[in-house]
Write a structure and sequence with these properties.
With about 500 residues, this protein is of the alpha/beta class. The chain is built from 17 helices and twelve strands. It has a ten-stranded mixed sheet with strand order 1-2-3-5-4-6-7-10-11-12, with helices on both faces. A hairpin with a 5-residue loop joins strand 1 and strand 2. Helix 5 crosses helix 6 and helix 8 packs across helix 10.
Length: about 500
Amino acid sequence: MPLIKSVVCLFVVLSAASAVLAQRAGALKIKPYVFESSGNVKTDAEFGTLFVPEKRSDPQSNLIELAFVRFKSTAKNPGPPIVYLAGGPGGSGIDAARGTRFPLFMALREIGDVIAFDQRGTGASKPNLSCWDRNVIPLDVPPSPELMLKSLREASRGCAAYWKDQQRVDLTGYNTNENADDLDDLRKALGYKQISLWAISYGTHLTLATIRRHPQSISRAILAGTEGPDHTYKLPSNIQKHLEDLSAVIKADPTIGKDVPDFLALMKTVFDRLDAEPAAVEITDPRTRRKVSVIVNKFVMQYIVADNIGTDVTGRFPAFFYRASKGDFTNPAQVWLSYSRDDIGSAMSYMMDCASGQTAARRARILEEEKSTLLGSLADHLFPEVCAEWKAPDLGDEFRSPVRSDVPVLFISGTLDARTPISNAEEYRKGFPNSTHIIIENAVHSDPLFLSSPKILEGMLEFLKGKPVTTTRIAGPPIKFAPLLPQQPK
């Protein structure tokens, strides 16, 4: 054989062997990486990938690739690394590091390495289980839960079939227990004795599962916006309490309180009006630039509020209902038009939530409470009914049972966070004798749980250093409410 052919053959054989080696469970690849934040700040980091089984109970399982970015510690003697876990489920830890929380990632390097982790099925991990299927909700009939569920189920069926049948993805491997085992595999692959977990929302749900499954692997945990093992589905009573608390805040607000002295009464007035006579609103479709007629009824108003409750959209709620009470339903029509053809999200998200499920006792409580609350169970976004299309194996009541551990935990909650209320953290604190709870006044879900006061980061650093947390009640900035009526151009 000519020498050149021999060299080529040897190169092909070695390349193939390298590819096989790279795609074995536990194989780790790390390379230097210049990380750039959304604010155009660049910093040296490492980009890594780890191969793990898609479903560990299946000997023939596919391998999937988990992505992460590691920021090396600035400490002379670093402590255990800190792994950031995004919410959702479906959020990207790497994207979170790139955004508004970038300064926190940089600050926490004084404790140890900080790792932005993309959970299985998300972000830069492969496969990324995004759905391209969209809702298709007709505009010429009154919106209803049944109509929306029909559309969501059809789109879910299409997305599930794409990943299972065309891409040969075993969706049954996408649950929180497998996700927790990924974290321990990452710890072992990187050679760490222990890791600390820094989590928000669904990330806290994952953290609690990891502490249960791998207690010796976890040094400390920060849980912001706690979603316990049996908190996947929200209690209507918690949503109602949030509306009552918000009503009191609105009444006390110096700019809009005099015009909205009773926000709950305003909501009821609008609901009753739309129950009696839904509004047909003509707006311009931003995609086609053509006029369309959108029906706004009580369900539309309820669903929009339930979808955004306890988030940074809260400040727009008074204007949303005040304008509706004056007969202006333009904004709800625009939002509903968007919902009527929006993409449905991520297969990972549906599989995780459907597998986590709920205990029979919680389900019974939700069904009872929804009868006497303004929004019923709409904050659960048509779960668990849509789960019929995803066929996620239920993780069972053992998974949803209380977690007990000596691992030190810092809980962080906001007084206006309806999605993961203070009561969630207090319920699970009972199982963590070495815990502290920071409560932030006026904080809603997401960024305000980390960024509404510099004292939050101070408390996180104290906790990670093993010191007592100095401040456990923090005054966040008041909510800025939108003007009740559109401001006229000058």
